[in-house]
Amino acid sequence: GFLNAKKIISTVGLEDSKNFDVSLRLTPTDAPINVDNINYEFGKFDLLPGSIQSLDSLVTLLELNPTIVIEIMSHTDFVGSAQYNSELSQKRAQSVVNHLISKGINPARLVAKGYGETWPKKVTKKMAKQYDFFSAGDELSEEYINKLQTDEQKEIAKSLDRRTEFRVLRNDFIE
């Protein structure tokens, strides 16, 4: 299936009849969906203020799709121990869930799951186009990142691997 979406068009100032063409991007529910700009202090799980706008767009998406139950998936890079990264990512996922609950989303629709460093990001075509040292399909594993040529490339790869995503677990929630 796909997630519901909406687009607002203003007719303020129009005096004549006009046709509008609207394209909506349908987001499939069968794969994890990245939530851009969810950021934390290094080694911490408190959300930075700049993350709120992205989270508010997730609140809107959940309001448009009132029957979905989602898993908030938080990932770290490989710096630090596996146990530390697992615990940190769980706390980060829970921070996102807590924010969504504070905005009125039913807690029964939300699952927090920290994956630590166990699920490296796969490079998308868009990422490969933006960063010419990646190829689509590459996996940002510790081994892969350590083979990159410059420290700057390594830092970019690690920052992309640190992410928050969500996936739809079910589409049958009834309030």
List the SSEs and their pairings:
Blueprint: E1 33-34, H1 52-64, E2 69-75, H2 82-102, E3 110-116, H3 125-130, H4 142-146, H5 151-161, E4 163-170
Parallel strand pairs: 2-3
Antiparallel strand pairs: 1-4, 2-4
In short:
By secondary structure, this protein is of the alpha+beta class.
Count of individual domains: 1
Q: Major sheet: order of its strands?
A: 1-4-2-3
What's the CATH H-level superfamily name?
OmpA-like domain
Which overall shape is indicated by the principal axes computed on the Cα atoms?
globular
Question: From N to C, what is the helix and strand string?
Answer: EHEHEHHHE
Looking at the overall shape, the CATH architecture is 2-Layer Sandwich
Overall pLDDT metric: 92
Q: Give the total of beta strands.
A: 4
Q: How many helical elements?
A: 5
The structure class reads alpha+beta
Radius of gyration: 19 Å
Poorly predicted ranges: none
Which CATH class is shown? Alpha Beta
How far from one another are the termini?
Answer: 21 Å
CATH topology, which one?
60s Ribosomal Protein L30, Chain: A
> What percent of residues adopt helix (DSSP H or I)?
25-40%
Question: What features would you describe in this structure?
Answer:
- The structure is a single chain.
- This protein is of the alpha+beta class and 175 residues long.
- It has one domain: OmpA-like domain (60s Ribosomal Protein L30, Chain: A).
- The chain contains five helices and four strands, in the order βαβαβαααβ.
- Strands 1-4-2-3 form a four-stranded mixed sheet.
- Strand 2 (69-75), helix 2 and strand 3 form a beta-alpha-beta unit.
